[in-house]
Design a protein that fits this description.
Blueprint (H helix, E strand, L loop, with lengths): L1 H20 L13 E12 L5 E11 L5 H29 L9 E6 L3 E8 L3 H14 L3 E2 L4 E3 L2 E7 L5 E8 L2 E9 L15 E7 L5 E5 L2 E5 L11 H5 L6 E4 L2 E9 L4 E8 L4 E6 L5 E5 L2
Parallel strand pairs: 10-16
Antiparallel strand pairs: 1-2, 2-3, 3-4, 4-9, 5-7, 6-7, 7-8, 8-9, 10-13, 11-12, 11-14, 14-15, 16-17
């Protein structure tokens, strides 16, 4: 009788546990769902003078659990993802000397003879991101210059360092804050990388196995699979891009859309300033990766 009772209790427990794991869960608020997998990558080249040119990028996925069991799995994955994120952040910071904002979901970074730069997108509000940078850069002993522009939806601040000045630009776009931190170096750029006077240059590339179309300023540029995928590897590699993958534009804010064959259309605003050069690279996971090259 006791064995039968224990068996009934065991079966009942399993049924109850299965029922709990199958219970639908309330979706988390936007930007607050557990982190899913993370895709990271980097490239490094060395010139004749042995000056390295390093590019980093990373994109975090999102777990969107519908049931308790999936939420438990997402929580476990989140622990591993955050460990990878911390390692990535440490490497980028050590290489560029620039910090990444907390809670980023997409980031790119560049350390070349021409520039140190970090680009990041985060669901955190602009005020929180601004506080992070003021604290992180202040701890480095970098002084905030006069003339800062701070508004609810944007901020532009220059910091004085022992080397060259560091420029911080923040903008609020839809449900995310875009952060750009950059420090120009002394090395000149090649003609292929150098923007025209008073304009900005965009260089386009595609690292995926599928064709992609990037549309900006009413210009649709079709990129074959892997076309221009090495544009970020070095100054020389960017200069070797065909003319069809270069766009020279007046400074300003533009809407950029990306359509990878077989995927959904992605759209974002993109603000660029005079005398800058940016790469727009379609990453291996189909995400658009903006990166400051000059």
């Amino acid at each position: 009788m006791k064995s039968r009772t224990l068996g009934i209790l065991l079966v009942g427990s399993l049924v109850a546990a299965t029922a709990v794991l199958a219970i639908p869960v309330t979706p988390s608020p936007a930007g607050a769902s557990p982190t899913g997998e993370i895709h990271t990558g980097w490239t490094r080249t060395s010139g004749s003078d042995d000056h390295g040119d390093v590019t980093w990028w990373a994109v975090k996925g999102r777990c969107t659990p519908e049931y308790v069991a999936q939420r438990l799995l997402c929580a476990a994955i989140s622990v591993l993802t955050e460990a990878t994120s911390r390692g990535f952040e440490a490497k980028v910071s050590a290489d560029t000397g620039l910090p990444l904002p907390e809670g980023w979901v997409l980031t790119t970074a560049k350390n070349s003879p021409q520039i140190n730069s970090v680009y990041a997108e985060t669901p955190r509000d602009l005020a929180a991101v601004l506080d992070f940078y003021r604290d992180a850069l202040g701890k480095r002993g970098w002084a905030e210059n006069d003339g800062a522009v701070v508004a609810p939806d944007r901020a532009v601040i220059t910091f004085t360092t022992a080397a060259r000045p560091v420029l911080l630009r923040l903008s609020r776009q839809n449900d995310k804050t875009v952060a750009e931190l950059s420090r120009r170096k002394f090395a000149p750029a090649t003609a292929g990388l150098l923007p025209k006077p008073g304009q900005v240059r965009l260089l386009l590339g595609n690292k995926t196995d599928e064709a992609a179309v990037i549309t900006v300023a009413e210009q649709a540029i079709r990129l074959a699979a892997h076309a221009g995928e090495k544009l970020t590897d070095s100054d020389a590699a960017a200069g070797e891009l065909p003319d069809g993958q270069r766009i020279d534009l007046p400074p300003g804010k533009y809407e950029v859309t990306l359509k990878v064959e077989g995927g959904k259309v992605q759209s974002r605003e993109f603000e660029v300033a005079a005398s800058e050069t940016w790469g727009l690279l379609v990453g291996t996971d189909g995400a658009l990766l903006p990166m400051r090259l000059y």
